[in-house]
């Protein structure tokens, strides 16, 4: 079959491209390296509309389907291990990439990063965008917000223990603040104390979340879908009530089913198809991919237009290989400007007041702070119940050398064996019914552990390369020595003091490793620039032609990058809305 366009990936940028191509009636092939991931909670229940359930449709089209990790207790870790993507498990959901100075967590499945993200829709500060030369303003962000609502659903603020339809949940009075989730209330109160200590504004805000909140009004998302957020605290492991606006639902419901308003038999999704190479050919581009539904055989397909949205790591690897072995003329800056987005995780252990971190969406609220010249976003973060025991154990033993080394050995063995770790006597003792602090449930284990998700302005100095056809990432100077992390820890210690607990960073930063970063919002690798000498793509995501001399602005026609790889630096905020805004800008230029 002849295609008008090929879309590589199904994350935010790719789904934007799919939506615009479908609107114009184009024949589209979508290559996705992963497969479908859905909740098993809906199995056996009648559909809430005239659409077939995804598993039924997928079976009819020979698409494999897998299900979110389920048990909300220690045994759920087995599901997580089974869901990891490896060379032996190409259908895995979570890809955990080990690099010298940082580990990077990404997703692999229909829906891309939306499958494991925290649902946050947040606009970065204008100073941050200006600092990295990203030309996005009100018009672009308004368009992105409109696209989100049209193709995914309304945004909700979920900061209370129960839904409060029609109420402004950011302005509950003192007599009503008991309605806040406990970690929300503690975060809000601590922000006021931190602002006073720093002598800086530290405003607390509820986050806009792509989550269905309960609303009894006829025609509301909750009414139509018969579901809403149940505060299970496990968004990144899959929402069992199916209340999240993940992109697998968008792609299926809007473009693939016969009942979809934009459906066309010319939109084809091919799962377990990993793009390996892009070559320039007469009339367009040839994409070589491995078809893992057919034993991993290499196949080729051509189209005049290609949109690449395989994610920061996937897109950068694909273009490095296409340049080095496929003859694609690209900028020498390819692989540069990798940004960690200032991602940093930390705990406050033994908070004075309970925070009940296993309840609520993964992220609920944020505190933006400009500290010592840099912008930061401090967010609360849930601790999913299935990780409660191991989290409590890890934090309990981190300051005890003997226990820490035993814990490290057990975790390394469990990772290598892909088995549940034998925590033995490292787990809390049997409960004592005489002691109110003798925790028994997973929720109680993390009742006084607050988890922070932080983002800030790093210097975007990481460099990707290919080493024996494998993606590598490194920094010329140790990334852990950058001043940004000290600034983050200074503010976090103030938060810990305000919460009456002990500050403890992630174990890979201190405990199991020495200042190893864990990155969940990777950006860059194919950065926007003004010409071929200082960037890989122009402001519309079109790769510069690397064969042209000097500071050329000539581009490769018909080739477009629409994901986080083009973002030239840290956003100091969750990148979803920015990636969508940039993708809409790029696709509008490509499809006038």
Describe the structure concisely.
With 592 residues, the chain is of the alpha/beta class. It has a domain at 159-206 and 342-383 and 446-518: Cholesterol Oxidase, domain 2, CATH 3.30.410.
Description:
- The chain is an alpha/beta fold and 592 residues long.
- The chain has a domain at 159-206 and 342-383 and 446-518: 2-Layer Sandwich (Cholesterol Oxidase, domain 2).
- It is 26% helix and 18% strand.
- A hairpin with a 2-residue loop joins strand 9 and strand 10.
- The longest helix has 17 residues, at 182-198.
- The model has no long low-confidence stretch (mean pLDDT 92).
List strands and helices in order, with pairings.
Layout: E1 5-8, H1 12-23, E2 28-31, E3 36-38, H2 54-60, E4 65-67, H3 76-82, E5 94-98, E6 102-107, H4 126-131, H5 138-151, H6 182-198, E7 205-206, H7 221-225, H8 247-256, E8 267-270, E9 273-281, E10 284-291, E11 297-303, E12 305-308, H9 311-324, E13 344-349, E14 365-371, E15 374-381, H10 388-397, H11 401-417, H12 442-445, E16 449-456, E17 463-467, E18 470-474, H13 483-499, E19 502-505, E20 517-519, E21 559-561, H14 576-590
Parallel strand pairs: 1-2, 1-12, 2-8, 3-4, 6-20, 12-21
Antiparallel strand pairs: 5-6, 7-14, 9-10, 10-11, 13-16, 13-19, 14-15, 15-16, 17-18
